[in-house]
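Data deposition worksheet. Section B asks for the primary sequence of the deposited chain exactly as it was used as input, without tags or linkers unless they were present during the calculation. Section C holds the resulting structure in token form. Section D is free text for depositor observations; keep each observation to a single sentence. Incomplete worksheets are returned to the depositor.
Section A, Depositor: J.P.
Section B:
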Amino acid sequence: MAANASCRKPSVHGGAAIVILCAALLYVGQARAQNAPPAAQGSGKPGRASQAAGKAPTPMMEQHALELLKSMSATLSATRAFTYRSRSTVEVPAKTGQFVTLFAQSDVALQRPNKLSVRVTGEAPNFDFYYDGKTFAAYSANNHVYSIDSAPENIDGMLKVIEQKTGIHFPSADVMFSDPYAMLTNNLVSAFVVGPATVDGQACEHLAFISRGVNWEIWIDSGERALPRRLAVTYTDAQNLPRFLVEFSDWNLQPNLAEADFGFKPPADAKQVPFSSRTAPLPQKTIQ
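Section C:
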């Protein structure tokens, strides 16, 4: 699986463009979005046109919201290794201009400072991603192809390099960095506590933020572990206000991980193809 420009997605802290997640953790889609005809006047999700034309939110900065976000970041930063499962939805423009929703699931294993693996299943193209501190690789079993390249020596550097080189970006990348708080609060202009909530039976604090071109929300465990349970993002300067949602589950902060979990050995019948920002051997799903 070579990555292509359709896998590019700005993170929560970055600027905004029409977004199709790259797998969450990886989806294909921005190229599809760019090639789709614009939605007709009055089309798109109900109420979105009026929402876009309505009064802009009034920025505010509640210290308690920042403290809760910082607590979550501290939990993840201090954890040497963790695994989680994510369920993700992404809105993709079809040929008609209508937005449709795709679903995907990802199983993530991370070990600091330089190990990461992701398995993607669902409606997104299915593939496995491996990073062992020396190389990163992506393998599509359905296509019997893989891509591999040299990598920086830590996760922070790797996440930045794969986006620059391949256009791949993990929607939950901000929680993978060594300092999630710094990533999430970059370009932040507003923060407040919505209130208590429950996600999959877990008591949470619901927080809302505004970054440049992005409205985003996060649901964080109310307990001592302060783990993220849900992330919702709306891109406010893109047509039809595209949105995505990531729900986290099955967190394990003391996983039993081995070196073999992060190394990639290509099957004998697999063909190697280069990572590229323009071409991809992965099957591109066309939304009719």
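Section D:
The chain has one domain: 5-272.
The CA atoms of residues 27 and 124 lie 5 Å apart.
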